[in-house]
Amino acid sequence: MIDAFQGIRQPSCMPQLSCYSPLGALTISEDEGRIVALDWGWGRDQEETPLLVKVRDLLEQYFDGEKVDFSILPFSPYGTPYRQKVWQAILEIPYGETRTYAQIAAQAGGSARSIGGAMGANPIPVLIPCHRVVGTNGLGGYSGLNGVVDKRILLNLEKGE
Questions:
Q1: Which residues in 120-159 are b (16+ Cβ under 10 Å) and which e?
Q2: Catalytic residue among 59, 130, 133, 154
Q3: What CATH code is assigned to 11-72?
Q4: What is the pLDDT of residues 48-79, one digit of tens each?
Q5: Is 130 a catalytic residue?
Q6: Beta-carbon neighbour count of residue 95 at 10 Å?
Q7: Contact assessment for residue 155 and residue 132, using Cβ atoms and an 8 Å cutoff
Q8: Which CATH class is domain 81-159?
């Protein structure tokens, strides 16, 4: 569930924990008991809070091919109210399924183009599964380090391939 973030702290003050994945190193950031970011690369500071350990364990299960429901996690991504509404709609896409930008636009309001902007600004990719949003004529883009290659890896993983 997404909860609006009520303040901004310096990232260096937030607990972070990194893990390896088929996409490369990922770093999860927490603020006041809520996940606020997932970044590509290895984080500078490592702190094993109970929540970060739980997320790391869930990511390991996910990348091992297990069906994981990340929507149970407490999220508080930085973003406008509209983007948070879009990200909440993305959280509702079931594991292994996809929706088009147009379908998400119909659900959250706005245009398919604005949905693409919200996807590109998603501060918690993989966990808020923007890779499950595709174009009507192809995969569309992806904010991952390797772009659409990473999106394809995630979609294939969820198909069991």
A1: ebbbbbbbbbbbbbbeeeeebebbbeeeeebbbbbbebbe
A2: 130
A3: 3.30.160.70
A4: 999 999 999 999 999 999 999 999 999 999 99
A5: yes
A6: 14
A7: yes
A8: mainly alpha
